[in-house]
Amino acid sequence: MSAEILSTHTAALFDHAVQRAAERLRAGELVALPTETVYGLAANALDPVAVAKIFAVKGRPAGNPLIVHVASRAQAAACVTAWPALAETLARAFWPGPLTLVLPRSGAIPDIVTAGGPTVGLRWPSHPLIQAVLRECGFPLAAPSANLSNRISPTNAGHVQAQLGDAISLIVDGGQSQVGIESTVVDLAGSTPRILRPGMIHAESLMAVAGAAVAETGPGTDAAGETLRSPGLLKKHYSPKARLVLLNWADEADLLRQVAARHLIPARCHVLAHTHLPSPEIFGQVYLIPHDAEAFARALYAELHSCDAAGAETILVELPPETPEWSGITDRLRRAAA
Ligand code: TXA
Ligand code: MG
């Protein structure tokens, strides 16, 4: 079996794809759908049998909860038992968009979705295709990233096809994901709001809107308790097949020295640079990603997927700046390098 891929670039194709996706989802099947962050592998969040297929197809541990996607405040409210003022403030500012809010879950949400936990992660995505599918279905959609467990998330339909094409029957092609890395996950169920997974909506923007402190998950938070709180924060995650090495280099000579010190062969290394571009003749491939956090996030996973497709042994990535806009990107790179 190979998944059918439906295009959406005309109004008629878009409507057809929405109808077909909704049909499959109503029937308890999985459909890969575009979102603005990364592509999601969606199932009816209220149907535990359908949701179980997500875990099976991804090879995802049962202890890792899924994000539930909604397309209205009323739909969000039905999934939770509390909607604190801060949830309202953040939702008003950032929904629809790349922000997931973790709140106490209501009885409507099956155990399998939350991995048996007392909270549910909610997100109202901004991509028009998944919004149309959500409206057509009328039920919320549980959707993790549409990749095999522990691999790089897909940011286009081709990435989904390469990893899951043999395991699912339908992929909707909604173009390249515009944000490019997964949503920021904020825990609002505890006494203080806390970022469980950084993303393109960073701590500074959250605090500006919240008018209150939002705790950041530091690098040392892989202690047992933390891992239980958000299993997706396991240190090793989101990895390409090639070994990823994060480095700073002043110029090409400096990079070559560091490569030699690590006993790497330059021709087998692919380089992802944003500022100091080495010459392409020496390395396997050299990719330039603009020195702009939004553009970098949008391109990052596609570049990592293409390094893997090209059989890179090692990917050398130029470390991003330490400013807040880059925190989500640096988080993903550190995990991929772990
Ligand atoms: O941008 C995104 O969030 C994408 C798109 C498809 O929406 N989804 C996504 O899902 O990245 P996934 O399953 O690959 O990552 C969800 C993360 C995991 O780290 C999971 O542990 C965490 O969110 N999470 C989900 N529900 C949670 C909960 N109730 N409490 C704590 N963490 C939760
Ligand atoms: Mg994922």
Set out the fold topology:
Layout: E1 4-6, H1 11-26, E2 31-33, E3 40-44, H2 48-58, E4 67-69, H3 73-78, H4 85-94, E5 99-104, H5 111-114, E6 119-123, H6 128-137, E7 141-142, H7 157-164, E8 170-172, E9 184-187, E10 194-197, H8 203-210, H9 224-229, E11 243-247, H10 252-261, E12 269-273, E13 285-288, H11 293-309, E14 314-318, H12 327-337
Parallel strand pairs: 1-8, 4-6, 5-9, 11-14, 12-13, 12-14
Antiparallel strand pairs: 2-3, 3-7, 4-7, 5-6, 9-10
Helix pairs in contact: 1-6
Bound molecules: threonylcarbamoyladenylate and magnesium ion (MG).
Magnesium ion is lined by residues 144-145, 153.
Name the descriptors:
35% helix; eight-stranded mixed β-sheet; 2 domains; binds magnesium ion; single chain; Rossmann fold; DHBP synthase; 338 residues; globular; alpha/beta; binds threonylcarbamoyladenylate
Oligomer: single chain
- What is the residue-mean pLDDT, rounded to a whole number? 93
For the biggest sheet, the summary is: 8 strands, mixed
Order of helices and strands: EHEEHEHHEHEHEHEEEHHEHEEHEH
Q: Assess the beta-strand content as a share of residues.
A: 15-25%
- CATH top level of the largest domain? Alpha Beta
**Radius of gyration in whole Å, from Cα?**
20 Å
Strands in their spatial order, largest beta sheet: 2-3-7-4-6-5-9-10
Ligands, ions, cofactors: threonylcarbamoyladenylate, magnesium ion
Shape: globular
